[in-house]
Amino acid sequence: MPSQARRSFTTTAALIAAAAATAPSANADGVPVSGVDARPVSTPGAEGREYLTRRARPGTVLVEREAAGGRVLRRLRLPGNLSIPVVAYDRTSGGLSADGRTLVLIKPPRSFPQPETTLAVIDPGRMERRGTIRLEGHFSFDALSPDGRTMYLIEYLSEHDVRRYAVRAYDLRARRLIPGAIVDPREPGERMNGLPMNRATGAGGRWEYTLYDAPEHPFIHALDTEGRKAFCIDLDALAGRRNGMWGVKLEFDGPGTLRVVDDGKRLAGVDTRTLRVTTPTPPAPTAAARPRRGGGDGPGWIWVAAPTALLVAGSTLVLARRRQRSAIRTAAP
Question: Which pTM value belongs to this model?
Answer without folding.
Answer: 0.76
